[in-house]
Amino acid sequence: MSSASAGAWVLTLPGYTLVPAEARHTAFLKQLFMACERQKMGALPLSEPDLARLLEPQFAARCAQYARDWPGASDLILTEGPEPIGRFLVDFSADPVHAVDAAILPAFQGRGVGTLMFRALCDEAAARGRDVTLSTLDGRRPERLYRRLGFVVQARPAPYVSMIWTPARQTA
Hints:
Blueprint: E1 2-6, E2 9-13, E3 17-20, H1 26-41, H2 48-69, E4 74-80, E5 83-91, E6 97-104, H3 113-127, E7 132-137, H4 141-148, E8 152-155, E9 160-165, H5 167-171
Parallel strand pairs: 6-7
Antiparallel strand pairs: 1-2, 3-4, 4-5, 5-6, 7-9, 8-9
């Protein structure tokens, strides 16, 4: 059982470790972005070099956007043993707490890791009496996960859905 601390917040995920992202994780974060975007694109006939030319500017733009919009967010790398397999970017300083980004390499998806990450976040938020918000693409697989965990829709600013998890709703 491992945990990661983001300030005073501690997220515990049995069998996994969350560590603060460092400069040495930049290549992994880019690889993760590319793999997840490739997965979303399906069977487009793009070579790896063509995909990199298409996605590298998007990766840079996303990094800049996160830094601008969520300067207080904690960037956490999810590892299984020594291997990085995902990312969890959370702004613990926001009220409510905001899950900015969560991604897991496609080879590790479908194992319940995302569920563990969000349960750990919600458990810690509940212990502090805090709500958790997030935004995701409308109608996609992640939305179903968040609903199972007790998140409810706040708004649907197309093409996204904004959701909230409230501890009071979970104990009622």
